[in-house]
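Lab notebook, bench 4. The sequencing result for the construct came back, and we need a structural model before the next group meeting so we can plan mutations. Quick request posted to the team channel:

Model the 3D structure of this chain.
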Amino acid sequence: MFESLGEKLNNAFKKFRNKGKLTEADVKAGMREIKLALLEADVNFKVVRDFIKIVSERAVGAEVLESLLPAQQVVKIVNEELTRLMGGSQSKLTIASKPPTVIMMVGLQGAGKTTHAGKLAGMYKKQGKRPLLVACDVYRPAAIKQLQVVGEKLDIPVFTMGDKVSPVQIAKEGIQYANQKGHDMVFIDTAGRLQIDEVLMDELKNIKAEVNPTEILLTVDAMIGQESVNVAQTFNDLLDITGVILTKLDGDTRGGAALSIRYVTGKPIKFVGTGEKLDTIEPFHPDRMASRILGMGDVLTLIDKAQAAYDEKQAEALEQKMRQQTFTLDDYLAQLAQLKSMGNLDQLMAMMPGVKPGALKDAKIDESVLARTEAIIRSMTPREREKPDIINASRKKRIAAGSGTSVEEVNKLLKQFEQMLKMMKQFSDMGKTRQGKKMLGRMKMPF
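Done. Here's the predicted structure in token form:
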């Protein structure tokens, strides 16, 4: 997402960077480029008009025209205004003062409502909550079964009364069940339609009136562009939603929805879905998203992902192994698993500062390399993983055959591992000095 927009905005900034000082004419020409970039990204026209007006007014002020680095000032202004446009700061989910917190999930069919009900429940389960999923979509074939499959994968219970009972009754009894069983969060998966109709909205209004939800979250497909903004506006007018989950941000979307929804509806984007797996959901941070768009990276989200995957006890044991130089291929395998649990490597790389949007589109990271490395190590005996120097030519042939790789790939892995051990020995030797101990103490693998 935002690759094309990011590239076009950075091209527009080049007009400013080539100038020692900026004139109002320079600003006007650059703003024209930024305006076209936003419109091509499917940003709502009214949003673009007001955004350009505010940025232009600030850009022709003294802070830019009299600055020693005017181009950087313009980028700073655009960054600040993009952040403001998307809500300014993170809008967190409201937690009810008296449990359970009731989250009503609404949206059109195909937006990922059922899956994201599960994703959200899974996210809060990791935070120590006891979520319950309630199946209120009695119309779509296999909708209840889909929610049950999601619940089973996440080990979260699903309350259902079949498809013959009214959704209002199911929602009401689902909350009663949550109170009885001690669930402190309830996620109600409601029915969707291919398009908004009166019957759907009346049903949703009735559920809202019956259960008085803490939050009404609208799931919107970012891939449908400007239409997603229209959908959000209609649902908000009829239900007074409290927030939006923007899905499919990992797809080939132009990003206009993320920049328009808050402005048009007045309601915040609270979460974004970034993939198909059940852990690919993130809180939405306007400032971090603005930085991603402008190619400034998103180190804070990268750190969040690292901390989520980080096992402190494992890290302490690993540090000890490094000090004692007893690091094995089993430890190496554990580090690969931790890295993989952080998510898609292309997305992680795109969060690094200086990696411009679009820069990686033709340089895909081959995640199959990690899979082959894992297969090679798993094809070794416990003794070989502990003492790789015993792996001779015949053992390499057996390992290659067992992992579906080649002897050359086995050799390459063993050489990389040997180099890593040498590097660890250097750090261990450094650790004998006071400064070295400080450095070694701060080292956390694999980051």
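The chain has 21 helices and eight strands.
Will bring this to the meeting.
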